[in-house]
Amino acid sequence: MPWPFRGKPKPRKESDDPEEFRATLVEHLEELRDRILRSLVFLGIGWVAGWYLEAPVYARLNGMITSAVIRRLPPNTDYKTVFHNATGPFFLKLQLSFMIGLVLAFPFIVLQLWGFIAPGLKRNERKALQSVAPASVVLFGIGVAFCWVIIPSAFTWFTSYVEEFNGTSLYQEAGTMVFLVLKMLLAFGIGFQLPLVIFVLGKLGLLSPDMLIRNWRQATAGIFVLAAVITPSNDIFSMLMMAVPLSLLFALSVYAVKYTTKAKPDEDD
Fold this sequence. Notes:
71% of the residues lie in helices and 3% in strands. It is mainly α. The longest helix has 48 residues, at 25-72.
């Protein structure tokens, strides 16, 4: 079978000559096709799992959100989650199950991405980056966990502004905030890949650690802009909660590249 249950591709000849190691265009396209199909299979499996996990996930997230909201609501403020039409529950389950599946499948999709990139690297580059795929999964998990910790504080902060509008009630479309939380979890998991990208580009010689250190102000500004773009809630609180740890991880990744480059010089030298 050509995909995705085919065994591992045959190892290519170890050589420092990139021309001997580089696959033909057809082989590259076939490999790309297989990786994409495998990623779609992982996403499909995640979606099916998400369909059955949706109820407990919704109950857990909605309970956390409700507790955070009620904690800061003014006394006697009416709070409800509602559906506006009869088809709402079905489409909400469909959307939430897909988002849950995407979160579950994302680490495996990242592994497919690195698996596609690795054969195009020279032997010393593959050796330097052999831990990239597991590190990517770990960073994704750290980003998701960090987002999970700050979510209650974020909703408490949002709710604090309700008291400025006396006599109002808070009615939320069922699932809207849960869907936002899932998007934030995915956004933080993706955002926490940035230090790894910097590390990889540095190890491949495409970015100089000294150059990044000299331009750390511009890099930090870029991180804050990136955080503002990928944070789904588009609020200053969530943006700062993503940008600050990313800035710290960026600094650590730059110094890690600088240290490892000095400690382990390129084998081609």
